[in-house]
Amino acid sequence: xxxxxxxxxxxxxxxxxxxxxxxxxxxxxxxxxxxxxxxxxxxxxxxxxxxxxxxxxxxxxxxxxxxxxxxxxxxxxxxxxxxxxxxxxxxxxxxxxxxxxxxxxxxxxxxxxxxxxxxxxxxxxxxxxxxxxxxxxxxxxxxxxxxxxxxxxxxxxxxxxxxxxxxxxxxxxxxxxxxxxxxxxxxxxxxxx
Length: 193
What we know:
This protein is α/β, with parallel strands linked by helices and 193 residues long. The chain has 9 helices and 6 strands; from the N terminus they run E-E-H-E-H-H-H-E-H-E-H-H-H-E-H. Helices cover 49% and strands 13% of the residues. The chain starts with a strand and ends in a 6-residue tail after the last helix.
């Protein structure tokens, strides 16, 4: 784990001293949804997966939405949802892997949030995607190139955004979602003081 210097406004607390929002950022298959659900239970927060929320609103899978409307339309809906979620409290939010690209909306969401970057290497991400039967439906290609190359290229392009846009970095390789959720819960303890 890497904890960055606490920035002004990071994790501005709710009444019980826990940050208003815990935002999980990271590439596909880094554990955001699995960790987020468990963390929400631990904190007694509501859990929102932004991809699932968009799918429910649009009545289709991410793949269907992208095929029907294209990535630009999906990203526009994602931007609007980030702005909406910036006004919520008592939530753990698992963002889509590309949400970090919306820098203006990300800055807004980040206010009052503790942002945790869940990081994994390209080889681990590829193995996780290959092992997940639902991956093709949930995670359509971003570029249309070979999946292994796509992971490496897109991950490299986003890495600096994840780094700058987060307060804490947690490596997810060889760790369980429960273990990671427990670690993030402990990170909230200083906000209670």
